Amino acid sequence: MQNNKKELRSKYKSLRKQLSENDIEEMSLTIANQLLKLNIWDKNYFHVFLPIEEHREIDTELILHLLSGKDKNILISKSDFETREMTHFVLTDTTKIKKNQYNIPEPVDGIEVPSKKIEVVFIPLLAFDKKGHRVGYGKGFYDKFLKECTSETIKIGLSFFEAEEIIDDVHEGDMQLDYCVTPNEIYRF
């Protein structure tokens, strides 16, 4: 059986569709609790994605609460679909969030922070393998963004599902994860 990105995308989109609101809520909470076990809490700049509800992504609200409770700088992004680039803004109490044409919640504006300053990135994904390769939506935003970060930046994938053995069609430009956290396990790569 082929384990290429296209097939994995379709498999995991379909698995996600089967999750109830309650499943998503419970698993998101478990993932947030799992993150507390990681040795990342001495860092200051954390990048978090805001979930696309229509894609049944992990609800990162609990992670945002954890970070704000620990007084961390939380960064969220705005995506430019022409250049495939992400601009990162500090999330504050006054940040206005608006969905773009792809239903991605984004900051309207704010204090911009360069990728090089970001120490921890929580990464959305559809699937990942035991080597730390991930399958996203295929637009390449995160690969491009992660290349702009420093080699010290900790890359943490968040997944409702466990690892695939291997993803067949990994490209050279694909950025590997350092960790992937699921409700049941913390994978270290």
UniProtKB/TrEMBL annotation:
<dbReference type="GO" id="GO:0005524">
    <property type="term" value="F:ATP binding"/>
</dbReference>
<dbReference type="Pfam" id="PF01812">
    <property type="entry name" value="5-FTHF_cyc-lig"/>
</dbReference>
<keyword id="KW-0067">ATP-binding</keyword>
<protein>
    <recommendedName>
        <fullName>5-formyltetrahydrofolate cyclo-ligase</fullName>
        <ecNumber>6.3.3.2</ecNumber>
    </recommendedName>
</protein>
<feature type="binding site">
    <location>
        <begin position="5"/>
        <end position="9"/>
    </location>
    <ligand>
        <name>ATP</name>
    </ligand>
</feature>
<keyword id="KW-0436">Ligase</keyword>
<dbReference type="InterPro" id="IPR024185">
    <property type="entry name" value="FTHF_cligase-like_sf"/>
</dbReference>
<feature type="binding site">
    <location>
        <position position="57"/>
    </location>
    <ligand>
        <name>substrate</name>
    </ligand>
</feature>
<dbReference type="InterPro" id="IPR037171">
    <property type="entry name" value="NagB/RpiA_transferase-like"/>
</dbReference>
<dbReference type="GO" id="GO:0030272">
    <property type="term" value="F:5-formyltetrahydrofolate cyclo-ligase activity"/>
</dbReference>
<dbReference type="GO" id="GO:0046872">
    <property type="term" value="F:metal ion binding"/>
</dbReference>
<dbReference type="GO" id="GO:0035999">
    <property type="term" value="P:tetrahydrofolate interconversion"/>
</dbReference>
<keyword id="KW-0460">Magnesium</keyword>
<feature type="binding site">
    <location>
        <begin position="134"/>
        <end position="142"/>
    </location>
    <ligand>
        <name>ATP</name>
    </ligand>
</feature>
<comment type="similarity">
    <text>Belongs to the 5-formyltetrahydrofolate cyclo-ligase family.</text>
</comment>
<feature type="binding site">
    <location>
        <position position="50"/>
    </location>
    <ligand>
        <name>substrate</name>
    </ligand>
</feature>
<dbReference type="InterPro" id="IPR002698">
    <property type="entry name" value="FTHF_cligase"/>
</dbReference>
<keyword id="KW-0547">Nucleotide-binding</keyword>
<keyword id="KW-0479">Metal-binding</keyword>
<dbReference type="GO" id="GO:0009396">
    <property type="term" value="P:folic acid-containing compound biosynthetic process"/>
</dbReference>
